[in-house]
Amino acid sequence: MAGKEFELLKNQEMELYLVNKEYLADEPFQDIPNLQEKLELLKGAFLEYDAMHTGEIDYPTLSNLLREFQVFRSLLELRVQVQDITGNTGSTVPYKDFVMAMLGRRSTMSQRFLQYSGKEGNAVKKPSLIEPGSHASYLEHETECVSSPLSTLPPPPPPSPADD
To answer: CA triplet 143, 33, 127: central angle to 5 degrees?
Structure first.
């Protein structure tokens, strides 16, 4: 590793350490079990995929990172989910927003990432499309806004006298 690249990596590790320290001190995240361990796992994954050591990854790179852990999202789904959770509308995801998206209360990405990596429990679980947890209520909330396609149909005609 060249001297300049090593220096960039050390600076980035320090920046990510400081972001993790913020999350550890932030009250809404303090009730997350094994938060320190989870932050270290996220930091390691982020460092691995941030080849330029800029502290940001683009959406295709984020998609590749998540696919490694059997979390499949289209680029549009990823962008929407990150924007919903963090408010970030840029073309890249900084580490702070990556962590927020992964630790957010409604984040199924986080649940699947941590379960598949074996950091959530003792055994590595095979991922499934629907895991029990808080995301189910999020999905129910999201579908409440979607009207049934049947609601746009006219009512059925009255019975015909010939049917009697």
So the answer is: 50
Give the whole-angstrom CA distance, residue 80 versus residue 94: 15
**pTM metric for this prediction:** 0.62
pLDDT in tens, 117-163: 554 444 433 333 334 443 443 444 444 455 555 556 666 677 777 66
The distance from CA 146 to its chain's CA centroid, rounded to whole angstroms, is: 23
Residue 151 CB-density burial (10 A; 0-12 exposed, 13-18 middle, 19+ buried): exposed
SS3 for the chain, per residue?
Answer: CCHHHHHHHHHHHHHHHHHHHHHHHCHHHCCCCCHHHHHHHHHHHHHHHCCCCCCEEEHHHHHHHHHHCCCCCCHHHHHHHHHHHHCCCCCEEEHHHHHHHHHCCCCHHHHHHHHHCCCCCCCCCCCCCCCCCCHHHHHHHHHHCCCCHHHHCCCCCCCCHHHC
Q: Which residues pair with residue 58 across a beta bridge? A: 92
